[in-house]
Structure formats: structure tokens, C-alpha cells
TrEMBL record, chains A, B:
HTH lacI-type domain segment(s): 7-61
Native organism: Sphingomonas gilva
Protein name: LacI family DNA-binding transcriptional regulator
Keywords for this protein: DNA-binding, Transcription, Transcription regulation
Listed InterPro entries: HTH_LacI, LacI/GalR-like_sensor, Lambda_DNA-bd_dom_sf, Peripla_BP_I
Pfam families linked to this entry: LacI (PF00356), Peripla_BP_3 (PF13377)
Gene Ontology molecular function terms on file: DNA-binding transcription factor activity; transcription cis-regulatory region binding
Amino acid sequence: MKKSTQPTINDVARLAGVSKKTVSRVINQSPLLNGDTRKRVEAVIAEIGYVPNPQARALALRRNFLIGLIHDNPNAQMVLNVQQGLLEVLRDTEFELIVHPVDRGSGSMLDDVRQFLERQRPYGVMLLPPISENDTLAELCAEIGCRFVRMGSAQFGPAANMVASNDREAVRGAVEHLAAAGHRRIGMIAGPHGFRSAFERQQGYEQALEDAGLPVQRTLVAQGDYTFESGMRAAERLLDLAPRPTAVFCSNDEMAAGALHVARQRGLDIPADLSIVGFDDTSIASHLWPPLTTVRWPIATMARAAALKLIGDNDEIADEPQDALFVSTLIRRASVAPPSA
Amino acid sequence: MKKSTQPTINDVARLAGVSKKTVSRVINQSPLLNGDTRKRVEAVIAEIGYVPNPQARALALRRNFLIGLIHDNPNAQMVLNVQQGLLEVLRDTEFELIVHPVDRGSGSMLDDVRQFLERQRPYGVMLLPPISENDTLAELCAEIGCRFVRMGSAQFGPAANMVASNDREAVRGAVEHLAAAGHRRIGMIAGPHGFRSAFERQQGYEQALEDAGLPVQRTLVAQGDYTFESGMRAAERLLDLAPRPTAVFCSNDEMAAGALHVARQRGLDIPADLSIVGFDDTSIASHLWPPLTTVRWPIATMARAAALKLIGDNDEIADEPQDALFVSTLIRRASVAPPSA
DNA sequence: TTGTATGCGTTATCAC
DNA sequence: GTGATAACGCATACAA
């Protein structure tokens, strides 16, 4: 009759000579079901190419199968890696990923997110830094009753709602590496104020200096805002110092690239005259000349873990007490050498 | 009574003392409605914070408000720019973006897409290159009855289903620029076989040479696969030539970066000894040293246009015969100079 | 201008 | 084990 449209559960029921409920049972793998009827229904399903309507399912179940990704465009590679990690887990489930960028500068960010959550009512959402650091946002999710996982550079919330790297520790290792190479004047290009990641990384830098018995000097720290240009400006300031630092740790690769740029403009040889370490291990790091020593954090792994936390204890996927902390590694390339002096 | 859950249209109706239908009319901006009742209903809506359930709406309307983005991870910046462009348009509508990456190498790509389309039944989907070039995929969308827009480097389909740049023309201009600077041995690092973009760009290169009265030599074209490493390998081959080309056009920035890398390893001065032009104007282009002359295509604009095509003639948004072709521009930076010889 | 009855495709309740 | 029947939240016919 109405073959023009997508077949529904009714069509299957009619053709198989059973009730809707039975078909529903087949779809939902109900255990109490006669093997014969099951096979018959499955045959019909395969034959007419029936596929359940997620909208209707969502309505009846009073819950849907959408996972939201809320972010404020940190950097392209990061967002995409997260998406990839999430989708790797979601691929074999009935969940779909729905992306919702926001503008943290707009002032209506919270309202925007609230509207998104109330409208779509996603099953769970993942929050990317830097907005993941916003406690009000986390409270909003909790209040609305939406599962959420925050990604961050430190564990600033309950483990159940976090996937975090340990940036402080990672940077400590990186700067330690510099000190071990013989550097005694190690500068830092820090991230912007208000960013947890910037704070953690600076802490790691200072700890490493203390561990190495080196003085922590304010003049050796220049602040940037994670952009290439700000990295250039910060590097200018650092390289104007006398004596010049022989090494500089940069809070991200982008700024490291800017620093490298400036150093070369000044005729400095990298790494002979200046060692540079970045953070993130974005593609730019390996393509720079010389390739950049940097810190890599397991972003895809973290995203996968986040996805599991979001959809976990829902399906048969056991909700083992998953760890919230993930370890970063120092990627040693050619931008670091002992000081030449 | 049941205040624990999200308010529904029934709650609004009851509290406002009207029928569900009237509330529905308010929501859908029906013109034939008493101003008083409208205001009363709107007041209740605002008071109890009612927000329509999209799932139920979708079910009743027999259509949903999801726009799909199907891609095979071309490059991160591109995917993100497209997302941004799409969401800019979708932001003020009731549509949401749902991302669905696929693996064109897996063999099950078409089945994967088909399943996605049949399950979610998105209102429309956007196809990114290179899979957008796959005609079978486009036919699949058409067959299933899903609106679609293909993004490409040339108009290889009906304008209604396309947003395209004109890569051939853009490259012609870029190589012309090289010729105008006095270069007579201009090499090319081409993209991988089977990519429409690679083909178009090579065509543009050859046309420019012909226009300039220069011979088209096979040896001056080295093939890469759009990766940094392949750019390095291709550059090696080109720079081994005697006489050496004095300029090289690269089919994308990534490969241009690889070429730059190799040139510097060989002690060549850029641009004095070798001029380099890239394509895409990704962030890497401006951060390279020297900054890379490259072709910028209006990716966000194209994405916005695509979004309009997808949701167009649905809302009041007029479906003016939008153009399918978008023009690229040559971004002149420091990697090009007249040949030094 | 507003209300009533009915349907959208699925699942849950509770019988048989 | 299986099947009527009533939700789920909203929209469309068709009356009133």
C-alpha cells in the first residue's frame, strides 16, 4: 500500500504475522523469545530492509542516542582528534555525535549551552578546554541532568566527569630535560591568564627549576596567548634579555613556532644558540625546521575514554572505575641541544 | 504532579487554559491567532521554561532537523573550517550538525553511509572532498532521497548539489605569477592520482605554462600524496634535476612545507634560489619561514553557501539560484622572487 | 480563531 | 512466549 515510504515496525509485524511488540523484542534482543519467531521476523526485516526510526525510539524511551561535543575552537587538530577518538567508540553503537561550538567571549555562552542541552537533551556531552574549566558550565550540565565529561590539563573535578592529562608533570619533565642538557638560563613563554593549562604548565616549569636548583626569575617568563604572533612577541622580549636564555619552553607548539621564527630572524642557530621545546605535538611540530621537541598528550585515547564514560553503564560496557588521568610523553627531536657557550 | 520532568506542550496548554493545538500554533508562528491568547501562551511558555521536544517534532513532521557532515578526514583545518561555516548558518535555525566520518579505504564506505542515511534520515548532508567526488555516493543520496551538497575543486555535478572552487583557474593564476616574475623552469609537485583536485591543479599548471609559451615537461612534475613527507620526496627528485627548476608550484601547503624543508637542507635560499608556491592557505603557510605564497579558497564561505542550499526553500530563506562556483585568491608572501640566475 | 480526534514509529504494561 | 492497548510529545484534518 504505502510502500513509497520507509518500512516501519508495523510492516514487519504484518508481513511476519506477529505483533509489533514481538518485532520490538527481536530488535532489542529480548532473551525470552521463541527461536522460530525470531528467525522469521529477522528474515522479514532483512528482506524489506527495515531499519528502526531513532526519533521514535528516542520518544518512547524518553532518552536519545546523541552525544554532544561542546567546544570553543581551541585548535583544529585537537578538536578533530577528539572527534576521531569519540567516534571510534561510538561507531559500533547506536550513538551519534553532534557538534556544538560556542563562543566563550560572547557572554551568552552559558545560555547557548543551556538551550542546546534543553532542546536536544543529548545523552551526554563532552566539554573541551578551555570551556571545560568553567565550573558553572559543569554545574549547568549536572543541574539539567545531562551526563558530561570534562577534558582538561589537570584533574579539576570528580574522576567520573574527567579525562585529564597531567600537564604540570609533563612540563616538569620537559624542563628537566633542558636542565639535564646543561641549560641554566631557561626561559618560558607562558599561556594566557585564566587558562588552567597555562597555569599548570607554568607550575611545572617552576617546579623543574627548583628541582634543578635553578632560580625562578620573573623576567624569564613572557606571556603569550597561544597564538603564533604572541609567541613571536614573547620571544622578542626574551631574546632581548642580557644574558640571553639558552633555552625556552613554550606552552604550546604554535608559540614555539613563533619563537623559532623570531630566533631565526635574529640570525640565531637552533638549537646551537637556543633550544626550544613546545607542547601539544601538533603537526606543525614535526614539520618545523628543525623539528620541534615537544610534549605529546594522548588526546585520542582520552577522547575514547571520555566516550566510554559517557555511554558506559548504559550498555553492557562495564563501568570499571576508569582512570581519569592520562600520561603525556616528551617527544625528543632536533630543537634541543646543550648550550653552546 | 509530574514536575520532575521537562514540561511538555500539555503542561503549557493546561496552564494557559487552551488546547494543545493552540500552543502548537504559537510555537509554529501560525498567523491566524488571537493576539491575547498568543501572549498568554507565550507567558506560560516563558514561565515554566517550556522547550519543544525535537524528537517528537521530527516524528510528527516525518522529517528531522539534522544536517550531516560526511567526510574522510582530508585535513583538520579544512574540516573545522567547514564545520564553522555550516554552524554559522545553522546556529539561528533549529538544525543541528551531526558529524559522520567514514573510511574511504575500508571498502564498506558506501554501506556505512547508506546505513547512516537510513538510520538518521538527516534532512541533508554535506560531502567533503575527496569522497564528494564519488558519483556513486551522490547517487546513493539521491536514491535515498536525502538532500546533499558536494564540495569540490571543480563543478562536477549539478549546481544545486555543488559548492565548488575553480582550482584549475586558481593554479593557472598562481603559475602565471611565477612566470611573470621571470621563471622559465617551473616545476610542480602534484597531488595523488585519482583526486579531482590533483587533476584540476595540474591542468591549471599546464595551461599556465602554455599561456606563457613555456614547454610542458613531464620531468618537471613530481607526484606526491598531499603529505609533508611526500612533498619532501618529490622535492628531492625535482632538485636533482639539472638544470634545477627555479620555482615550484605545490598542490598543497603541506607538500610545499616538505619542499621547503628539503630545499633548506640542501642549502638553498628561499626565495632567491627557489621560489615556492603552495595551495590551501592553511595556517602552516603563514607560519613557515619564509611565509608561503599560496592560494586561498573561500572554504567557510562555501560551507555557508552549502548550508543555505541544504536548508533552503525550507524556511523563508529564499532559494535564489545560488552560484555553485567560488573564486580563490592568490596570497602573495615572501616565498616567491625573480630567479637569481 | 480555537478545539477534537487521530497519527507518527517505537516501547512499556499487563494481560493471556 | 506472545499480543492488545496505552503512552511518548507534537502536528495535521476537520469541525465547531
